[in-house]
Amino acid sequence: MAALARPRDGRMIGGVCAALARRFGTSAGTMRVIFLVSCLLPGPQFLLYLGLWLLLPQEPQSSASTTW
Questions:
Q1: Boundaries of every domain in the chain
Q2: Which residue range or ranges hold the Phage shock protein PspC N-terminal domain (predicted)?
Q3: Could you tell me the pTM of the whole model?
């Protein structure tokens, strides 16, 4: 299983949905749709997203993608 870290590529806002998609083996688009649909239900989904954005570490930058 992949580690839970916000990726540097394939993210739209904070990378939370992309990180969760990688962790659970689904596409980022599917995870975004699930999140949007869950926001229609009562609950703290948006606050949870913000919390994960702050708490999840950024994926380490690979040495091959560094630019000078």
A1: 16-55
A2: 4-59
A3: 0.76
